[in-house]
Amino acid sequence: MKKFILVVLLFSSTGVWAQDKLIDYVKPIIGTQRMGHTYPGATVPFGMVQLSPESDTIGYELNGKYNPDVYKYCAGYQYDDKTIVGFSHTHFSGTGHSDLGDFLIMPTIGKLKLNPGTSGDSHSGYRSAFSHNSEVSAANYYKVKLDDYNITAELTTTTRVGFHQYTFPASDSAHIILDLVAGIYNYPDKNVWTYLRVVNDTLMLGYRQTSGWARNRILYFAMVFSKPFNSHGFQNYDRKETYRGFWGKFDQSKNFPEIAGRQLKAYFNFKTSEGEKIKIKFALSPVSMEGALNNMKAEVTGWDFEEVKNAGQQQWENELSKITIQSGSREEKENFYTSMYHALINPTVYMDVDGAYMGLDRNIHHANGFTNYTTFSLWDTHRALHPLLNIIEPQRNADMIRSMVAHYKQSPEHMLPVWSNSANENWCMSGYHSVSVIADAIVKGNEGFDANKAMDACVTTAYHRSFGGLGYYIDMGYIPDEKDGVSVSSTLEYAYDDWCIAQAAKKLGRTDIYEEFIKRSLNYKNVYDPSVGFMRPKLADGSFRKNFDPLTTINQGFIEGNAWNYTLYVPHAPKELIKMMGGNKRFVSYMDSLFTMDLPDKYFAETEDITRDGIIGNYVHGNEPSHHVAYLYDYTDQQWKTQERVRMILKRMYKPTPDGLGGNDDAGQMSAWYIFSALGFYPVAPGSVEYALGSPSVNGATIKLENGKIFTIIVKNQNDTNVYIQKVELNGKVLSSPFITHDDIMNGGELVFYMSATHE
Amino acid sequence: MKKFILVVLLFSSTGVWAQDKLIDYVKPIIGTQRMGHTYPGATVPFGMVQLSPESDTIGYELNGKYNPDVYKYCAGYQYDDKTIVGFSHTHFSGTGHSDLGDFLIMPTIGKLKLNPGTSGDSHSGYRSAFSHNSEVSAANYYKVKLDDYNITAELTTTTRVGFHQYTFPASDSAHIILDLVAGIYNYPDKNVWTYLRVVNDTLMLGYRQTSGWARNRILYFAMVFSKPFNSHGFQNYDRKETYRGFWGKFDQSKNFPEIAGRQLKAYFNFKTSEGEKIKIKFALSPVSMEGALNNMKAEVTGWDFEEVKNAGQQQWENELSKITIQSGSREEKENFYTSMYHALINPTVYMDVDGAYMGLDRNIHHANGFTNYTTFSLWDTHRALHPLLNIIEPQRNADMIRSMVAHYKQSPEHMLPVWSNSANENWCMSGYHSVSVIADAIVKGNEGFDANKAMDACVTTAYHRSFGGLGYYIDMGYIPDEKDGVSVSSTLEYAYDDWCIAQAAKKLGRTDIYEEFIKRSLNYKNVYDPSVGFMRPKLADGSFRKNFDPLTTINQGFIEGNAWNYTLYVPHAPKELIKMMGGNKRFVSYMDSLFTMDLPDKYFAETEDITRDGIIGNYVHGNEPSHHVAYLYDYTDQQWKTQERVRMILKRMYKPTPDGLGGNDDAGQMSAWYIFSALGFYPVAPGSVEYALGSPSVNGATIKLENGKIFTIIVKNQNDTNVYIQKVELNGKVLSSPFITHDDIMNGGELVFYMSATHE
After folding, report:
1. How confident is the model at residue B141 (pLDDT cuts 50, 70, 90)?
2. How many alpha carbons fall within 13 Å on the CB side of residue B339?
3. pLDDT value, residue A12
4. Residue A28, preceding bond cis, omega within 30 degrees?
5. Listed range (B58-72, B722-736, B745-759) with the worst mean pLDDT
6. Quick check: A189 and B215 CB within 8 A?
7. Which positions in chain A touch B429 (Cβ < 8 Å)?
8. What is the pLDDT of residue B241?
């Protein structure tokens, strides 16, 4: 209780903090231009519903060929677009691949159009022109004027319910369109099946089955209007409808209660008076239509849009206030709290209010005693997002691990998730970094899950010989280049994952596992070629591949990266890496070159997922394998360079503007990097209890821990010039090296940075 | 107790009866040639599994056009074929439209072929030549030698599990193919989605979703081998596979644990020794793979094929023994017990062992206190099959009605089933004859369901204005010809259904409903044109259509029938019909003409679903609307003609041979007609308690009733010549008219026919 008073006093004493609402600094629009792949719409923390506008629903194919623009629309919205197609209920945040975009809703007036039209001409279909002037994009609230129809659209959500509010002009022919054809990344035949049932003149139930990035996905819904429609109709755009037969007894196009098919659209007709609001509650369920309806009833009882919006915003406020920062800069606060916002969107809740969810085994399961999550973009998020959760919400992180272990149990391949969504595994990227998340939680003493069972899952996963060259890795200590296109990066990632398993095994006293995996964790050495000083593709005969260009990312044995960057990917053994690369001096020189070299344009053109600004020299911040790199100077005698580089990256890669992200936010990983780095420390190797210090860009911060303790960061004399650490005191004691431990944080206390304009 | 002893003595005294097994008279092969559309495979009474060979799996399309041969393969097997493609788990019995054929399994040896090949050349694919010499088709047992592979296939079932036993030769390359592409009536894109998971080297789980006659159908399975396979593989024949991406990490074609797609096949490889048996248990579930596995565990514990076969045969024996007949003719017994067999296949159980089933609303429901059924071919089966069940198993019939009312509650259209299967309504044929089944049960005092709730469902159904012209019918008393292609037959069927509702309402004391519907039941009069003496299409202006040919079935306002036959379709008011048609003499003359006229070939060619033999004069026994017709003489002064015609029909339309059925068995209705007629009475108008007497073709029969009573039929002096009734005594009292009531039967007692070679 005493502590609580202390906090309140602290807040009060610092002026602005006490009255500021942290959500006011959240700008979901950040990253919606170019490569950020974030979405501007409404969601609550870890919400199942992500209700957001689609500015286009580009198909995967264009005139029978791959449409390169499909990549732009991973989140359904691009800031430069001039039209909005509609509002759909599911979106990935910041991913580099796409799916979802389920259940597109669009309100219109006038002549009914069921075709979305083309982005260049809003009159060509039901889409509408819009302007950013009328647009509000906030935490759990999105608003926009649909100029073609003079309709104001407002969106908010609860965990499982999307709440739409459309303010219409007076019209005898107002429509609400539900487009079940629309979807993000509409690969040919992606829509497997859709079903819609009109229960009465306000309630609709249905589902959509797709085969896209998630190969075998189903999502159910329940949709309720605040006002009965006057009439409704369907259109079936199936290439070829299946057997109709005696269905011809009915006129199915008008006011018929049900439709099923692959390419369906429905419309609901209303008369509206000037300024009349038609509201929609749209609940989702991974289990059943009944489940969706129950979710709706449990989460939203009335029709008060403001109440729902406010409740969701309060959830955000609660999440954001786990870290309060001191900063004189509104931009810093916007960057920080939008990073918090983007970090706390994924993973997403994946179960009904009664705990039922679809398992990887296509059976319905019940989450007993935990919340089940999905959307695990683990190649990205194991690096900083899950470590962040281990600090600010370990219980939730434990539930995520329980979800991962449930996934493992249900997995036909008997593997922990790699990149999973909606009861599907898409195996995206490399490694099996669930083990990093689990090991990090184990070594950090997170006790919210069965550590030994999770460890068993890790070990089984790590022995899956037919997974991405793992058999070769186990037998030979590396993956031969002939056998796998990304043999080097996979070897490096497996070595890191092995080390994670070893660390957790050690903590659990499972010595045999430790011994085995600590040995495997040394395999990074097998792909290092000392003659060139790079990690390099190695052939089955033990020789290094001749054809080798350390600058290119194409066909060099690395995934999303080149040898220059990936050579530094030994997060678990930086000291050994430095030694292997020739010692302190040569390593520092390598690092300096990385950050300062002039990368020829042809190499940039190859680099995936990032803008030109996303590269500093040859350092690619937009792709995750480099996220620990700036902190590697901490292991040399030139630690000030970590401080300098981190501040440079914070400044250049994050701006509180639509184009403010240098690359995909990657389900919050880019944002989590920001949060750690802005606070002054970073988990170089999750699975270790150690954090490397960088250079805090905030003037101070307070982290409220679940255990009731407070960890306070005070940064003295910090500004854009004073980026170098003069000294650091932990609880009044000067640190002798730039590292703190997890316990240092979790025990509560005070970390004081003394900053300076010079580094010596 | 006394009665029981009496029965035993009766059996003993008649010699053969006591030791005969009734299932020995069951020949499932009857009707498999030409139009019967029955299947020769294994099933238990009302079983969910119908495990039977496919002699071909013809696609709906042939070179882009409708393939007329698809009709032949409604049950997947045609007796004249020389090859077998495989054995699938679901089949309709005797229907005139097709679907199902789920989960085709084929054992082979030698070079693996995954293509079924063409019927003319078994070597063109995995199919095999076979001969009827090696074929055994019995109740719950089917056996055949697959000549191409020297493999003996044996099939048996429980309610939810198909049990295969394949006896292999010695082979290093024995295969069992699971073809998820195959299906009956494979309309383009019929396969919506299929999934297969190989849990271990003996257990597979999966499902198949189709959109065919049932628009939105899913069926789950669990499959277990008696012996582990050595390896397995998949082939995906999708026109275009959806996103693969990182699935490429794995070689999915070999020994991979799961696959999902639209066009999948799997194979499992074994080594076999000479005479080695590989057995498969294959369980179905309408709910989930888990449900299928539970069904398997509950119904079949071990691997004893004989035990499972015997248990199912005992179920048949129990069903068949509800009616024991006396006959000197093996053919008669084969006809009779095969009719019993075919009659007691449908409707089929549609729920897991725990009561869970898929509802019409696409939610999972639990049948509380009843068995849920599907496969309601009600346009056919309301006529005699359900009345038969009201006598020999009223409890089961009550459960069927509870299933129908559950269907109604879940129905998006709020209607009782018309033709339903697997949680789908296909609206096949006309009328809504659920009401006949319900009314028949109510008036006959079947108390196994909530009569008033069922009545409410009947009334709501009968008021569904947008269903097949019903709005016009309600407003105008008939359906105008301009509005509906089958306006006359629908008007007549609605009038009969209305009368059913009225009868039940009367019994329940719901006078308002009675008054309303008894009035509606007179509407048959509105489409009778006295100027020509036929029911005739009527225009909206009240005039009869000029263009009219009472012999043709095409475009005359009738479904599966012509004016000659349909004019007699007033089963609920024969006396009024006779009066309307000009009285006794003119009516008899009309009837005589019907049975004796020489129908020009061009009219036969139009007639659906029946062979040339299926027509007697212009009387079409193969189509149901005439099923009561022969009994209409009972309402004239020439009742002997009913006796004569019934015997003629029994003789000509039913033979114990593969081509023995004159038309589709129609889910048991044709067979139920046989059973009643062979016993000497028939329910002319279900919904009434009255049965009209015909001419029994058996020498006697004993009906064991659920209430413990026995109804005995004794037929004296009967043979093929002595077809006329001299007199009939009920419990020793001579009947004054050729009618008995339901109570006469259910109270137990003795009906004695005295037969003669002359009719006066």
Report:
1. very high
2. 30
3. 40
4. no
5. B58-72
6. no
7. 246
8. 62
Q: A212 vs B187: CB contact, 8 Å cut-off? A: no
Find the mean pLDDT for residues A99-107.
97
Query: From CA B356, how far away is CA B358, in angstroms rounded?
Result: 7
Mean of the per-residue pLDDT values of chain A: 94
In chain B, residues with a C-beta closer than 8 Å to the C-beta of A200 are none
CB contacts, 8 Å: A239 with chain B: 189
Distance set, CA B344 to CA A126, B21, B660 (Å)? 55, 17, 18
3-state secondary structure of B633: helix
Helix (H) / strand (E) containing B507: helix B487-508
How does pLDDT run across B197-221, given as a tens digit for each residue? 999 999 999 999 999 999 999 999 9
| Cross-chain Cβ contact A243/B187 below 8 Å | yes
Q: Which residues pair with B233 in a beta bridge?
A: B254, B267
What is the tens place of the pLDDT at every residue in B73-96?
A: 999 999 999 999 999 999 999 999
Contacts of A467 in chain B (CB under 8 A): 249-250
In the prediction, which pLDDT does B69 show?
84
* Residue B200 per-residue DSSP state: S
Residues in A touching B418 (Cβ below 8 Å): 246
Nearest CB to B361 within list A97, A197, A260: A197
How far is C-alpha A343 from the chain's CA centre?
7
Least confident of A374-383, B5-14, B134-143, B497-506: B5-14
Angle among Cα B322, B326, B331 to the nearest 5 degrees reads: 100
Q: Which amino acid is at A412?
A: P
**Largest alpha-carbon pair distance within chain A?**
87
Q: Phi first, then psi: give them for residue A757, nearest 5 degrees.
A: -85, -10
Q: Could you say which of B260, B364, B427 has the minimum Cβ distance to residue A215?
A: B260
Pick B213's closest partner by Cβ from A243, A260, A363: A243
Contacts of A5 (CB under 8 A, 6+ apart): none
> A466 CB contacts (<8 Å, ≥6 apart)?
B250, B251, B255, B256
pLDDT for A143-153, tens place per residue?
999 999 999 99
- Return the H-helix or E-strand segment holding B646: helix B640-653
Which helix or strand (DSSP H or E) is residue A145 part of? strand A141-146
Quick check: B193 and A213 CB within 8 A? no
What SS3 string covers A189-248? CCEEEEEEEECCCCEEEEEEEECCCCCCEEEEEEEEECCCCCEEEEEECCCCCCCCHHHH
Question: What's the one-letter identity of residue B697?
Answer: S
The answer to whether A195 contacts B216, with C-beta atoms less than 8 Å apart, is yes
Q: Tell the burial category of B570 from Cβ atoms under 10 Å away from its Cβ (0-12, 13-18, 19+).
A: buried
Q: How confident is the model at residue B57 (pLDDT cuts 50, 70, 90)?
A: confident
CA B291, distance to chain mean position in Å, is 26
* A678 — pLDDT class (breaks 50, 70, 90): very high
A360 token code pair = 């990887």
Q: Which of B180, B191, B205, B195 is nearest to B259 (CA)?
A: B195
**Which residues of chain A does B251 touch, with a Cβ-Cβ cutoff of 8 Å?**
466
Cβ atoms within 10 Å, residue B78: 21
Confidence band, pLDDT 50/70/90 cuts, at residue A68: confident
d(CA B243, CA A213) in angstroms, rounded, equals 6
Q: What is the per-residue pLDDT for A241?
A: 62
Structural contact between residues A574 and A688, judged by C-beta atoms closer than 8 angstroms: no
Residue for token pair 């292991």: A635
Q: What is the ipTM of this complex?
A: 0.94
**In Å, how far is A542's CA from the nearest CA of chain B?**
23
C-alpha span between A715 and A634 (Å, rounded): 19
Please tell me the predicted confidence (pLDDT) of residue B245.
81
pLDDT tier, A19 (very low <50, low <70, confident <90, very high otherwise): low
